[in-house]
Amino acid sequence: MIDRLTEQKIKDVASIVDVIGDFYELRKRGTNYECLCPFHPDRDLGSFKVSPKRNIYKCFSCGAQGGPVNFLMNFENLSYPDALRWLGKKYSIEVDEEQRKFVQVKPSTPKPLQIQATKELCTIPAQYVTLSLDLRLRSQFQAHLCRIINDVYRIVDAAQMYALGVTQDEGVIYWLIDEQDRVRSGKIMHYKYDGHRDKEKDGDKTNWTHWKMKQDGRLPADWQLTQCLFGAHLLPRYPDKTVALVESEKSAVIASIVLPQYLWVSCGGKTQLEAGQKYLALKDRKVVMFPDTDTDGETFRFWSEKAAEWREKGFDVKVSDLMEKTATAAQKVAKIDIADLLEEDLRKVYVPSPIEFIGQESEQEKTLAAMIEANPAVRLLIDKFDLELVA
């Protein structure tokens, strides 16, 4: 992989105006630039704005947005590292490479293997993780993150950190990798455009990679799953971080992007909270549990009871009441988790306001921008009913 210093150097010098200008003729409009949108059939100028001040682009028709790296990934269909290499060449920056686990491998098709299968533990070769890595952000889950977080670098970083995989039908693979970097299995999940689970594809049962691998002969018939925490492989790498334990893998990934001061891991469900072999790696760590919420506080009480059992067995664990204190009555009815709460804040923080793209615009555009700034629901109405600005 490209080392972090080189990445940052490239991002510091890359100009969104220069990059898009290599492909399209930009027209200056006030303090910004505009051209036909590259990401949808666009006939009229005005919807696709390029802001040199913020170094981003935004299409107010199709919603495409991002910076120089994101533009190249979407327009040229490049991976994140390849987009950085493209920019490095453009700006004459020598790209230094460093090896990272699960990334630098030969792209070969895995052969049926005799898997390490002992009475103690069955594992999956790490090459399957490598070949599934979603560094191009192709899964619906990663695409959802791109819609709510205007920083592709952080999304790719999270994808690498948690070794997120992608299936052929754009599902995400949450690989369970233990603290010794042994791959236990992977959960396959599909998401809708809004970021919620696609139950029509997944059904009510957990879909595991080892099931499919046993069916096609890549794993022996007697292979058995021994679960570990999602994110357990990160524990030795961040020995000083307080561990934040949540229920779902999705919550761990999103929270790691927003609240990186914690090391976020997932237990995979509240039925998995018995303090057994799965949690031994947390024995000498400070642990904070973040339960989901509900209307009567039953989930919080359940986690609190489990935390008390953990403490009796020598664990240093506390239960956060963040969700109980901050969730609204409607959110409690919806039984949201910390990821849902953070997503609402992310949409407020990271989605650029149309007013930021207005330079010396028409009076009608200025009026519309002022209306949107005063009442964001105006933008929702415009998007929902496909309204157009008229004189």
Give a topology summary.
Blueprint: H1 4-13, H2 16-21, E1 27-29, E2 32-34, E3 48-51, E4 56-59, E5 65-66, H3 68-75, H4 80-90, H5 126-132, H6 140-148, H7 152-161, E6 165-166, E7 172-177, E8 183-189, H8 199-202, E9 207-208, H9 209-215, E10 242-246, H10 249-258, E11 262-266, E12 286-289, H11 298-312, E13 316-319, H12 322-326, H13 329-333, H14 338-350, H15 363-374, H16 377-385
Parallel strand pairs: 10-11, 10-12, 12-13
Antiparallel strand pairs: 1-2, 2-3, 3-4, 4-5, 6-7, 7-8, 8-9
Helix pairs in contact: 3-4, 7-10, 10-14
Features of this protein?
alpha+beta, five-stranded antiparallel sheet, four-stranded antiparallel sheet, 16 helices
Characterise the protein shown here:
By secondary structure, the protein is an alpha+beta fold. The protein is 36% helix and 13% strand. It has 16 helices and 13 strands. The strands form three sheets. The protein has a five-stranded antiparallel sheet. A four-stranded antiparallel sheet has the order 6-7-8-9. It has a four-stranded parallel sheet with strand order 11-10-12-13. Strand 3 (48-51) and strand 4 form a beta hairpin. Helix 3 (68-75) crosses helix 4, helix 7 (152-161) crosses helix 10 and helix 10 (249-258) runs parallel beside helix 14. The radius of gyration is 23 Å and the shape is globular. The N and C termini lie far apart (52 Å).
